[in-house]
Amino acid sequence: MKASRRYILFRLFPVLFLVLFFPGLATGKVLVGVIMTGDIPYYGSMHEAFVGGLKKKLPADQDVQFILQRPFPDPIAWSNAARKLIALDVDLIVSYGAPATHAVLFEKSNIPVVYAGVYEPQASNLKGKSVTGCGYRVPLSSLLRYFKRIRDIKELRVVYSSTEEDTVRQMTELVNLAQQQNINPVRLDIRSHGDLKKLKSISTNDAVYVTGSSLAHIWIEDIVTALREKNVPAVGIFPDSNEAGMLITLFQPPGQQGETAAEIAAKIIGGEQAGNIAPELLRETELVFNLAEAKELGITFPIQLIIEATRVIK
Amino acid sequence: MTSLTQAIPRRICWAYLIVPLSVLLMYFCFATQIRGEERHRELLIGIEPEHNIFDQVQRYRALAAYLSDQLGLKVKLTIMSRYGEVIQRFRSLRLDGALLSSYTASLAIRELGLIPVVNLVNPEEGSTSQGYIFVRKDSGIKNVSDMRDRSVVFVDPATTEGYVFARAFFRQHGIDDLDSFFSRHYFSGSHASAVFAVLDGRADIGSAKNTVYNQLVARDRSILNELSIIATSPEVPEVTLCLKSDLAPEVLEKLRTALLKMDETVEGHKVLKQLAARRFVRASPDDFAVVSDMAEDAGIKMLNGSSNR
Lengths: 314, 309
What we know:
The structure holds 2 protein chains of 2 kinds. By secondary structure, chain A is of the alpha/beta class. Chain A has helices at residues 2-21, 23-27, 41-57, 75-87, 98-106, 140-150, 165-180, 214-218, 220-229, 254-269, 291-297, 303-306, and strands at 29-36, 63-69, 92-96, 113-119, 131-136, 155-160, 184-189, 207-210, 234-236, 248-251, 280-282, 286-290, 311-313.
């Protein structure tokens, strides 16, 4: 009798502990579904940091499998990606960007959701018992301020996508900021590749501000090429990882968001309720000046401006 | 065997020694006098670096030319490579004086016995400046406890407004060790850069001089909507001309008078305008007591070249 009690205590207690605190371990494998919109390097870096961070946080022998969905930035594609992951009954869904996260939440599943790469998540209304994550904020006014110091701007074209809620908010904020600075703002809604034709009407004295739109970033090289023909500079809030030719970028480093999302995901895999984990807003930014592009465009960066940069592309 | 001294008559021996010694003595006296005169035909004044040293050279060049003309001796200016380098440069470059911010002026008065001669009066009619500690309004930081695990940008360890004041303020609120309280801290190198770093989100908290902060705000009012000031320091002299105490008193007085009367001449006005200054006012060592007090509050030993970080 005593022996059987001892058996229960020493053999079953650790198992019960694992089941209670690490449900993923109890089943042996954790299935993480990931929605990463398009092949945007910003989300790619975030995901890389997430995978690396999660592996560090979990026990070495923990088997984690990632199912990666790369939908085109389109409401139907986002929705299909979310449904696929729910049908596969993954343990956790990780979504990069506000539209992908909204698509998952719309499906109302009980699978916990961790988001990252969401601009001002508190304004995105990402609420629920099984949702948490991290987002970012970039002072949009700073880029406008630097822009004005290198050239006079009469008209500011704001590239956004009306299908991506967070870029609509960025566009609205930029329109207000431009008006305060006596600059005429022009909204440039990109919903299809054909919308890039709107860039043909741009004039040399204009400037382009690219929001965090996934659609715009899928076609960023086409945008920059079109602008280069008109000698018009562009600035944006995503890093120009492929050095397409953005003149100035001010961005929240994606690696930090990936690591933060990994910390949150590890807690959920460890048994914490997603809704009990407070979302995080990351604010630290990096400022990059592309002097090679400036030379192409005939723009001279004042020395007192260059010293502000975190990195300079020569 | 007789020795040489015994062989040479004593009188001749003395003559052989006295004549060259006298010549040498006369040479040294004369040479020192010539060097002293040469030195006072030229004054070398150091300047601490600002945001854009190219603009700075341009601005101060006019002052050097004006003073050369007024004093009848060549006034040369040299820009020091960084804040707090004043002590080394006084020794290595044999500077006669320097236009210094309050921390380095205080240090130079204490360590080198420099005499504070005049303070520069800025366009807002002030000869003093204050330190600001500021944050972005949307940062959620309202007080020191909200600053935990956030990043902070200072200007340079040898600035009162851009470092010493902030350290004193943090210490008053129980923060002695920056590394354990803040996520990181760094030095931007200029007051304007510290303001831009906070505006951009490259740092959460900044410390810089009010005059530079206000200039940036005057150029771009939108900054007012984005930043809020958490703390303000007592007033300290902004820029002071300090001269070596061994400088000829007549040169020192002539220089002081020329600067104090600059705003009374048309030519002087032009130079002041280029310097972005109204005029100069007389400075006193007492002006710097507030700096020493602040350094003490910050737990900073005023050392040559910098403060203990």
